[in-house]
Design brief:
Layout: H1 2-35, E1 38-42, H2 48-57, E2 63-67, H3 79-97, E3 101-104, H4 107-120, E4 125-126, H5 132-138, E5 143-148, H6 150-154, H7 156-165, E6 170-175, H8 179-184, H9 191-206, E7 211-214, H10 223-229, E8 235-237, H11 240-253, E9 266-270, H12 275-285, E10 292-293, H13 304-309
Parallel strand pairs: 1-2, 1-3, 2-9, 3-4, 5-6, 5-7, 7-8, 9-10
Helix pairs in contact: 2-11, 3-4
């Protein structure tokens, strides 16, 4: 009996150790997943408006931002070419930075590629969409204006939004050719930009739009011009904060939130890099960045964030 008891006690002890080791291993795997960075990309500096909201809402997360400056603007490209470019960027983010989630910080790229990316990669992929739903709720005149690229406005995704939320509200759309290029040149407050914004905005104001949706992540940089031209008569809707909150919820549901107390790091990459690009990123971000060059067509080299994670 004593021997049996010893054997049983030893077996129970071994089983307890097994459970402890399994739980410890599971915790380590979860911890490793939580420590992975989040990837964010856009055609240029526009996605920095989304990155700012993510940084504010999720300060503990490491973030890797890719501005595809060699291919800007996306709004003039075909959906197929944007999808291929998005595939290259996401593969880079996964292969070289082991990101745990990707945010497409661009309405045009979301329309073209979000479904493909979700099918192709086994990580959360968060996309953008114009904030038509909150705009309809906010509007008192019953007329909402949408400023976006032509590609976004022509997309099936946007038409679905209008059909879903614009049944009892007049939705006036305006594609804004040339605005992204001016913003990318750092001319967001220039006279020529003011005149172009007025050209696009005035028809909305003439039709009594009291709410304007910014359907491009570059456009928050011209929000001061919109308020100036409209004399403060419109409410501006941009969705960066909502996207950051959605990302937080997705990561929390999948137990991927980084719960450390220290602030995470941010790494910036541009696919067309020179001194002017670096100055532009610093200006729009509001402080010095660690911007590096990224050539998607060349073999990738080990990156600083890899060294920290490995």
């Amino acid at each position: 009996m004593k021997n049996n008891a010893k054997i049983l006690a030893k077996s129970l002890s071994s089983f307890a150790r097994y459970l402890y080791d399994a739980a410890s291993f599971s915790w380590q795997i979860q911890r490793m997943s939580q420590d992975k960075p989040i990837g964010i990309f856009d055609s240029g500096v526009g996605g920095l408006t989304v990155l700012r909201h993510i940084r504010t809402m999720l300060p503990a997360e490491d973030l890797v931002y890719v501005g595809d400056t060699a291919y800007v603007p996306y709004g003039t490209k075909s959906a197929d070419s944007i999808c291929k470019r998005a595939d290259q960027i996401v593969r880079y983010l996964i292969d070289q930075h082991q990101v745990k989630a990707v945010v497409i910080a661009c309405n045009t790229a979301t329309s073209a590629a979000v479904q493909y990316l979700r099918n192709a990669f086994d990580i959360p992929v968060i996309g953008m969409e114009p904030g038509l739903k909150p705009a309809v709720r906010l509007s008192k005149s019953g007329t909402v204006g949408v400023l976006a690229t032509e590609s976004t406005l022509k997309s099936e995704k946007f038409q679905h939004l209008v059909n879903r939320f614009g049944q009892e509200t007049r939705v006036i759309t305006q594609h804004c050719s040339g605005l992204v290029e001016l913003i990318e040149q750092g001319k967001q407050a220039a006279d020529e930009t003011r005149e172009l914004v007025k050209h696009y905005l005035q028809p909305l104001l003439d039709q009594h739009a009291d709410t304007v949706v910014l359907g491009c992540t570059h456009y928050p940089f011209i929000a001061p011009l919109i308020l100036e031209i409209s004399k403060g008569s419109v409410e501006i809707i941009e969705t960066g904060s909502a996207i950051a909150k959605h990302l937080q919820n997705v990561l929390n549901d999948q137990q991927l939130l980084n719960d450390r107390f220290a602030n995470g790091s941010i790494y910036f990459y541009a696919t067309q890099y020179d001194a002017a690009t670096r100055s532009k990123f610093n200006m729009f971000w509001g402080e010095e960045t660690n911007l590096q060059s990224l050539d998607l067509d060349k073999p990738w080299v080990e990156t600083p964030i890899q060294n920290e994670l490995n």
